[in-house]
Write a structure and sequence with these properties.
Length: 205
């Protein structure tokens, strides 16, 4: 399939998903508390479906088959914390997600995801909404936190995937919509994920 056509198709899908439910208006140009809550909810739904698969491919740093369990426990705690707050401001929602994740975090994967959310809480603090630039900054801060939280960070892990996603939009977010910025990060993350087996050979085993 033509790459340009596929890009436009993917962009249209993401723009549809960022459009307010039941609306035919333009997609959301900003991330607000409600959309952040929806994103956490969707992450929880996807993790619930993929938990066993994640457990099965868990071979690094220790092949103990619990990555899916740990991530699910972490995001469940984050989701419940966000859902139980009455404040819908983005900054407060991001803070609640981080605190919830911290309370329920287990394992290396849980610790990494918690630090990633801490970056969002830091960048979104006091904000009602965030655009593409703020989103890119939040991913950068979350990735930095995650690297610092690991005693011996290794490339070829989720750390690399997050870093590559941020680097892809570091200098272009200001010229892109929220939807296209998300798309670029998503596509780059997929590419980095596919490349992890070459960066970290143990993943081939």
């Amino acid at each position: 399939m033509n790459t340009a056509f596929q890009y436009e198709k993917n962009c249209a899908i993401i723009e549809t998903r960022t459009r307010p439910r039941g609306s035919h208006s333009m997609p959301n140009e900003y991330l607000d508390g409600a959309l952040f809550h929806s994103a956490i909810k969707e992450t929880l739904r996807k993790l619930t479906l993929k938990r066993k698969s994640l457990n099965q491919i868990n071979v690094f740093p220790v092949p103990d088959g619990d990555t899916g369990n740990n991530l699910l426990a972490t995001i469940e705690s984050a989701y419940h914390k966000v859902s139980n707050q009455s404040e819908s401001q983005l900054g407060e929602a991001a803070k609640a997600a981080y605190l919830g994740a911290r309370e329920g975090s287990t394992g290396n994967s849980g610790a990494i995801f918690t630090q990633f959310l801490k970056g969002f809480a830091t960048v979104f603090s006091g904000k009602d909404k965030a655009g593409a630039i703020e989103l890119a900054n939040a991913v950068r801060e979350g990735t930095r936190n995650a690297y610092q939280a690991i005693r011996d960070p290794r490339e070829g892990t989720i750390l690399t995937v997050a870093r590559k996603a941020f680097e892809a939009v570091e200098t272009i977010a200001r010229d892109n919509t929220l939807a296209s910025t998300l798309l670029i990060m998503y596509l780059e993350a997929r590419k980095a994920l596919a490349n992890t087996v070459r960066v970290l050979p143990v993943l081939k085993e």
